[in-house]
Amino acid sequence: MKKHNFNAGPSILPREAIEKSAEAILDFNGIGLSILEISHRSKEFDAVNIEAMALFTELLNIPDGYKVIFLGGGASTQFFTVPYNLLQKKAAYLVTGSWAKKASKEAKFFGEVQIVASSEDKNFTYVPKNFVIPTDADYFHITTNNTIFGTELKKDIDSPVTLVADMSSDIFSRPVDIAKYGLIYGGAQKNLAPAGLTFVIVKEEILGKVDRPIPTMVDYRTHIKNDSMFNTPPVFAIFTALQTLKWLKALGGVGEIQKKNIEKANYLYDAIDESKLFVATVPLEEDRSLMNVCFVMKEEYKELEKDFQTFSSERGMIGIKGHRDVGGFRASLYNALPLESVKALVSCMQEFEAKH
Amino acid sequence: MKKHNFNAGPSILPREAIEKSAEAILDFNGIGLSILEISHRSKEFDAVNIEAMALFTELLNIPDGYKVIFLGGGASTQFFTVPYNLLQKKAAYLVTGSWAKKASKEAKFFGEVQIVASSEDKNFTYVPKNFVIPTDADYFHITTNNTIFGTELKKDIDSPVTLVADMSSDIFSRPVDIAKYGLIYGGAQKNLAPAGLTFVIVKEEILGKVDRPIPTMVDYRTHIKNDSMFNTPPVFAIFTALQTLKWLKALGGVGEIQKKNIEKANYLYDAIDESKLFVATVPLEEDRSLMNVCFVMKEEYKELEKDFQTFSSERGMIGIKGHRDVGGFRASLYNALPLESVKALVSCMQEFEAKH
User: Fold this and answer.
1) What is residue B73's DSSP assignment?
2) A10 preceded by a cis bond (ω within 30 of 0)
3) Distance between CA A240 and CA A13 in Å, rounded?
4) Share of residues in chain B with pLDDT > 90 (%)
5) Cα–Cα distances in Å, from B217 out to A75, B77, B167?
6) Cβ-contact B292, B150 below 8 angstroms
7) How far apart, in whole angstroms, are the C-alpha atoms of residue B216 and residue B222?
8) Most-buried pick from A75, A79, B218, B240 (CB within 10 A)?
9) What angle in degrees, to the nearest 10, is found between the helix axes of B235-251 and B15-26?
10) Residue range B253-355, CATH number
11) Residues 246 to 275 of A: which have CB under 8 A from any B CB?
């Protein structure tokens, strides 16, 4: 049976990237060694690293003055690394979900934190509007896509202070006006690579402005200076990231993938909105994530949720159980997920509905 | 031509672990999905994580009161994480190489650092003896194997204060009396897994004794509490680590591998000592690393080094160029390297010597 992979992350990657990764594990580039057992300083891996950084820069159209770095670990590490590097007195945070809240908590270790707005009052089912960004903040932090709650800031906002964004779950899903941001970071395990790799896009001029001493590995300048090779990087994850980026380029880049992502998300949201059983947890269309579509059974059909879980799972739907903070269902529609899988899910929902 | 992989790290892994990793990338456990695209919270990966921690504990005979955690990133991150968690007033460091020196530098961000002894006067070609560990230090830090310089502290030392060890390049190469240590850490990319994974073995009672607030991701207790699943761990590297640990267990464990490692290292050191062309950079037998054998051409034959580099490379020897801080050659003989490869290298050296 064909599996449709709606996992929220780690999540579906292009089949091509997966196959090339498996090949490289058995024999990398025909050198008779595995990608897992070669030096990160070998000319073979150096070429991978350089090409990955270049393609990353090209596809996101990153302007001069910015650097891309690849680090080990995940985005959670950036929650404290960002304020370590940037917070002198005060930072402002927009709290749109659990990860945004966690990020704001870590900043408190380093200075004053102002929560500009929060949507926690309604379990993060909307994105706050009309908030005022304090002009005396060292930076303003947003989480562009909220994986758990299915909301997304789909437009690049204007900020009077350095804008910092966690884009773990929507990077490469749409064009981004990088010039509006001072720093963008994210874990790679959604639209890019297996878990264990974090990317940081940083405008160099915002660094070096805080008084505190910064441990070497936490200091972004260390990794910029060394092209992400200060210490051993997560070699294999960078290799896979390169394969994903090549796939994305061949497909036409972020502009093209955005069209596909809109088509996929609309297809599913429309089906939910027309359904008698299901309801989307995020009411406002402009707040709805294109990456993670959250929905539950209407109150009167709540007891059918377990049945639909089983029903859909028997039809090859994987990873659609909602996060415990939301309940119900979540279908993650990352770049590599084909429209075909969304159609399969919708058919499954309709079939289930017809039965009840 | 058969390749002999003497890379210093990332380095040779058991072929079985490599093949199983490639298989799991195409289809993990027959579930129809890649190990790269499943949730770290899936029951399938949970089983991998738990088995890996259990086997890690079993093979190293880790006593009660200790916890094993798997983290993203590399050992360099531990250079500041260790003092963040443990350094209240003063830490003591034994400086036996570049990594040990780097570790001691990061500790200075958090308190006083006393260098108990250093072998930098002779380019780290020996391990200092008869040093006195200050009893007022919060901990004493050692680097058991010095990958760059080819020295190793092969015996577990007695310390009057908490003993902390970076065992990146000799973990699982020999039995270790864990009870003598408070904390052991290391990057996984030598004897365990691909780059991007770090292990920490920590005696729980040494934690929570410093006054400073610790960011969540830096606090070892976060990861202990969550069985290394506070955030998304490096899933694939943990999977490969499990395959390596299974291989090691089937082979008889660390006691058995130690015998093989001694045999391999002796074979190579003996050949170097008997050679007219080559000389080991570490004179004292007890200081010589079983993992990284460093050697150079004798002064009068120095100009032949380049020739031997080419000569050996044409015969399938990979990664034997010495680190720039030492020059000459370095053959890394990690667990997965067969004696056959050492014999091939020695033949190659003898053949070269016969020609000159």
Assistant:
1) S
2) yes
3) 9
4) 99
5) 10, 11, 22
6) yes
7) 6
8) B240
9) 140
10) 3.90.1150.10
11) none
Q: Which residues of B198-231 are buried (b: 16+ CB within 10 A; e: fewer)?
A: bbbbbbeebbeebeeebbbbbbbbbbbeebbbbb
| Domain layout of chain B by residue ranges | 15-251, 253-355
Answer whether residue A213 shows pLDDT above 90: yes
The CA-to-CA distance between both ends of chain A, in Å, stands at: 25
Q: What is the pLDDT of residue A304?
A: 97
d(CA A92, CA A115): 6
CA distances from B270 to B126, B145, B273, B278, B280 (A): 18, 20, 5, 11, 10
What pLDDT, on a 0 to 100 scale, did the predictor assign at position A326? 95
Tokens of B192: 């365990």
CA dist B268 → A211, B264, B285, B330, B336 (Å): 51, 6, 12, 11, 16
Alpha-carbon span A65 to A343, nearest angstrom: 43
Point out the residue among B196, B232, B319 whose CB comes nearest to the CB of A234. Answer: B196
Of B264, B356, B352, which is closest to residue B309 (Cα–Cα)?
Answer: B352
Backbone phi, psi, residue B17, to 5°? -65, -35
Q: Compute the average pLDDT of residues A62-77.
A: 97
pLDDT at site A1: 86
Mean pLDDT of B5-9: 97
pTM to 2 decimals? 0.97
The CATH architecture to which A15-251 belongs is 3-Layer(aba) Sandwich (3.40)
> With contact defined as beta carbons under 8 Å apart, do A75 and A198 qualify?
yes
Contact status of B9 with chain A (Cβ, < 8 Å): yes
pLDDT digits (tens, 9 = 90+) for A275-317: 999 999 999 999 999 999 999 999 999 999 999 999 999 999 9
Q: Is pLDDT of B1 > 90?
A: no
pLDDT tens by residue, A22-49: 999 999 999 999 999 999 999 999 999 9
Which chain A residue has its CA at the smallest distance from B241's CA? A36
Tens of pLDDT, residue by residue over B263-311, are: 999 999 999 999 999 999 999 999 999 999 999 999 999 999 999 999 9
Count CB-CB contacts under 10 A for residue B89: 11
Q: Which residues of A touch B3 (CB under 8 A)?
A: 31-33
Residue B354 makes CB contacts below 8 A (sequence gap 6+) with none
Q: Does A328 touch chain B (CB under 8 A)?
A: no
Structure tokens at B116: 């108990």
Contact B195 A240 (CB under 8 A): no
Which residue, chain included where needed, has tokens 């004053």?
Answer: A112
Q: Does the ipTM exceed 0.95?
A: yes
- E-strand ranges in chain B read 4-5, 66-72, 90-95, 112-118, 139-143, 145-146, 151-152, 162-166, 183-187, 197-203, 278-280, 292-297, 317-318, 329-332
* Cα gap A354→A239, rounded to integer Å: 46
The DSSP 8-state label assigned to residue A321 in this structure reads B
What 8-state DSSP symbol labels residue A1? -
Cβ-based contacts under 8 A for chains A and B? 192
- The residue of chain A with its CA nearest to that of B240 is A36
Residue of B39, B79, B110, B334 best to disrupt the A interface, most CBs of A under 10 A:
B39
Distance separating alpha carbons of residues A271 and A287, to the nearest angstrom: 17
